[in-house]
Specification:
Layout lengths: L25 E2 L1 H13 L8 E5 L16 E7 L7 E4 L3 E7 L2 E5 L2 E5 L4 E4 L5 E4 L6 E7 L1 H6 L5 E4 L12 H4 L14 E3 L6 E3 L2 H4 L10 E2 L1 H4 L3 H5 L10 E3 L16 E5 L11 E2 L3 E7 L1 E6 L2 E6 L3 E5 L5 E5 L5 E6 L1 H6 L4 E3 L7 E2 L10 H7 L1
Length: 373
Amino acid sequence: MEKTTSPFVDVSGATPREQNMWPSIVIPKESIDLEIARLQDIARPDNGRRASMIVHPQSRQPGLGLSPGIDVTINVLNPGERTFNLRKNSNMVEICISGSGVAVCDGAQTRVGKFDVWNTPSMAVHSYYNDTQTPWVRLSYSNAPLLEKLEIHYVEEFEGDIPPADAGTTAAATAGSSDGPRARDLALREQITDNGAWLLGYEWLIDIDVIESKSLHWPWEKVSQYLPSVEDIDRGYNGRRLFVLYNPATERRIGTTHSFFATISSSPPNNHHIPHRHSSAAMNYYLRGNGYSKVNGERLEWKEGDLILSAPGWAMHSHHSGDQTTSALTIQDHPLQIAMESLIWQERIKEPILTLGRQAGFESNRAQFVAAK
């Protein structure tokens, strides 16, 4: 008789395991430029996607990435090229780092130029084309590694405007078109305890209220106009000098997509952050300037055009600008972790560890500078 493996693992009295905190790494501009040049020179792939993923040395399949849950990909389109349509249940933030082109999402076309940022929602049909005379290069950030690890990453690529799976009339296309009551309105909805426990019928699970999630565009031409206002705050300001590229669909989770926030910072020369830490991973792409970061006691130098895994989850870190004004695009999986109620944060190391979104957060001293004006 074949011996079977027991599905049980005895964890009686077990103590928490030590987390494997990936070390921070810097991908220098020179390496990124060499990879861009290589992608420009290869034969055009059938689907038009010249792409190279930036992978951390500790990353393993399934779900390669620069952090365990975030991938970063260099994408190149040569003049006159376009990609096949794509849709997937991962979502993306993208930034144009050189050239110009057109991003198409759910039929809407957006012209993007250098340092413009835009998002692509889950299952939105999207493609790209370069109608200029120079190569178009963008960085894309997605939550695909997490979905790959869960074995639920749905990816579909096709030519034409309509995904093959959606051809013809489908139940999804006609759902909710009736003028009558929704099925969930006829299902049980009953509070069963005084402190807020409810019972809901099945239909509440499959007919969730829709919040519109669409592709939004943050043009650098407009965003950059606001940067001097954070740059010029008095040196006594104890917050980060940045703006969130906010998508209202993310509501209280303050994101650019439902998985990530993107921020654009502007720090004056010789600006120094107080060390802090958070469970969300963070990546910085430096648009200008130079400086260094200290992550778990290690000093990492960076400059314009470098990409850094600047905060592996829960690593103590701080950032310090050099002799120039510094700006960075920072991507963090902050909204995802708020949704999971896992976002712990320590704004200053001597302050308490808080679960943001479940507990009241931290205050900066911005009020004293507003009052001074």
